Amino acid sequence: MVNPKPGELLEETYIVKDPLGSGRFGKVWLVEDKQTGKRFAAKQCACRRPSQRKEFEMEIELMNALDHPKLLQLYEAFFGKNDVTFILELVTGGELFDRIADEAFDLTETLAVKYIRQICEAVSYMHNKMILHLDLKPENILCVSPDRLDSIKIIDFGFARRYTPNTPLKIMFGTPEFVAPEVVNFDPLGKGTDMWSIGVVTYVLLSGLSPFMGDDEQETLSNVTACEVDFDDDSFEDVSEEAKDFICQLLSIRESKRPGCDQCLKHTWLSKPDSHRKSLSAAVVNLKKFVARRKWVRSINAVRAMTRLQAGLKKNDGATFSK
Ligand code: ATP
């Protein structure tokens, strides 16, 4: 069980090393425990208002409830005056989509099936505990280690929520390209909300194209609510009909119509992993562009987040980073 330790400083216990990544809410660093030499990832986020603190406490509580090899583990968390630091399991393999784009290895549907199966298994575990992830997207899928490309882990439970059937849960957050129509329309969410995002991730993985991407955020959101999916691009030439059917089922407009994880794992596409060995070379070319564009968007968001964080830290005796 992890309890927040108010006032404890990151640099008292850990040596802060290299940056590992950043997102809308803060920055992630490689840190080493001074006593044991064990390495972790430290994620520091600005936390100034009591309402923000409540949100982070909920994230900590939910992460403590999760114990699955495909879900990132939280070791401890502590609050400074204006920030919160999560000490997380270190995942060294980098973001899955970066690896595919950078290493230009032979991406096949067989491999894609391995990834989507692992995602469905992890999300099934969460859904059985009545927890929704609500931010499934490529950046939140990491490779477990640099030398293993077939083993992944899901990270970032910042938007996760407990779900009680018959108690409407509504939220208005997420990443436009990956959110379901019910999020955009502020309608009640359910397990199907995560299933939609798995459908979008599968579409991108097999083609390198983002199914609802518009010229601006407004257009992207209106494409999501229009829910028109096509496989017209040449990149889909080598993609099997089973994979397209899998995607179509997940990208149904009605949340309740989408198959759950356990149903997905029984879908023909996911249950016959060795039947599709064709190289998805067009997808890899497109993924390079997809990854570059997402990085650009994220770097803008990260600069905004860091400006907010630093403004808070100036007034804070709490943890500061040396790099
Ligand atoms: P977002 O804007 O996506 O909501 P965020 O601010 O919540 O992001 P994370 O998604 O948790 O931050 O982390 C940002 C990036 O840092 C990840 O995409 C990943 O590259 C890296 N990262 C996060 N956690 C770890 C970890 N445990 N080990 C290694 N790298 C990590």
Commentary on this structure:
This protein is α+β, with helices and mostly antiparallel strands. The protein contains eleven helices and nine strands. A five-stranded antiparallel sheet has the order 1-2-3-5-4. Strands 6-9 form a two-stranded antiparallel ribbon. It has a two-stranded antiparallel sheet with strand order 7-8. The longest helix is centred in the last third of the chain and has 34 residues, at 281-314. Mean pLDDT is 88; it is low at 1-7 and 312-323.
A few lines on this structure:
The protein has 323 residues and is of the alpha+beta class. Helix content is 41%, strand content 17%. Bound molecules: adenosine-5'-triphosphate (ATP).
Summarize this structure as a short list of keywords or feature phrases.
alpha+beta; 323 residues; two-stranded antiparallel sheet; 11 helices; disordered N terminus; five-stranded antiparallel beta sheet; binds adenosine-5'-triphosphate; 9 strands; 17% strand; disordered C terminus; globular
